């Protein structure tokens, strides 16, 4: 009873952000009870929050050795191994946990294992775990909702539509399901849910609950060609989202400016990892702003027999955080610290991490869009890495982001002015990288890929030093699965319906166009 009270006190300190005091309390108790698994677990969780990776892993391993049968400890160990870049060990740990959960029909454990698989972009095993959990808890809305996300990620669109309709019927107040459904299909005037969505909005108890329904309504109205009403619904949605956030685009702009000033020619010349020049099979990075077509290009490449996509993994960013121990908790400290880091350990740790996923390869694709922030560091650490930037008409790009309700990230996409200002800085950053790397970036325009698919697919395959394979034209039948906002579109053949889509909203997007023009961005 006393230990439970102590754990509650430490947990409260953690929730308040007072990690240092919480960690001190853990150590105080462990001096008296060195084999307390509950305190060791709590301490490991706190150390992980503080990015103290080595200590977090050592602590959870200590707890695990005391009693390997404790599932909660084993789960924390798997998560910590992943956060430490030891992906092969993390997957082995998850496999053992999965086997145990399957043998014992342990649905709650399967859900937790599936969650970590999802964090690792391992969507197929995550789907399999949740599918089995669904049979052990057939009436669980939580399980069904998680399984819906997995079905969307692995391309089981028909099953996902069936599931989301059941979820809406069972829990109409859970409004995120309406947005899921809207993104899974292409709607028409004879087949839509517009009246239902209007009714749901009227019944919502607060703006936050109505938020995803506004986005769903905008999507279905756009599909039906009702552009004025579509934008009106979208505007209501993004204005609600913006008010719910504490965000200042000026901070992101300042970070990009610091990146540009910190990573210059002199730094690059001194920092370059010459040992990386001997790497024969370096990773491929597909990057750019979200909704510009990176998922499409990723699908095309990963349909090649010698290419495997890892999806939107976060291994590069996590590697930099690990290598910059003591950099502080904000991005400005990280930027400064990385300029002084040795690039070889960063490259070695990243390669070890991605090889741990055990993809067939031999060429691995990292399509995490945000890697554009680290492009110079990537090339300094791995000079032979191939960089593919996906470009798109600025207005189409900004509108595509504006109409997407992202699960997380991209806070600049909920305001026309924020969008214009961030896009401009992104444009300057990519110009900086292009000059720094003497043009060693493969640039692909989304509009070119959808209008002349074979020509530009052949070009990029050749740039990677690969022989052409006809199956790259049938990418929707092959390749990777990934949890991306455009998953429904990338699971079908190339289509050009999104090219110049912004023109349907020319009047409504005029403030965005004017702001971009004032910043010198041509569209």
UniProtKB/TrEMBL annotation:
<dbReference type="GO" id="GO:0008476">
    <property type="term" value="F:protein-tyrosine sulfotransferase activity"/>
</dbReference>
<protein>
    <submittedName>
        <fullName>Tetratricopeptide repeat protein</fullName>
    </submittedName>
</protein>
<dbReference type="Pfam" id="PF14559">
    <property type="entry name" value="TPR_19"/>
</dbReference>
<keyword id="KW-0808">Transferase</keyword>
<dbReference type="InterPro" id="IPR027417">
    <property type="entry name" value="P-loop_NTPase"/>
</dbReference>
<dbReference type="InterPro" id="IPR026634">
    <property type="entry name" value="TPST-like"/>
</dbReference>
<dbReference type="Pfam" id="PF13469">
    <property type="entry name" value="Sulfotransfer_3"/>
</dbReference>
<dbReference type="InterPro" id="IPR011990">
    <property type="entry name" value="TPR-like_helical_dom_sf"/>
</dbReference>
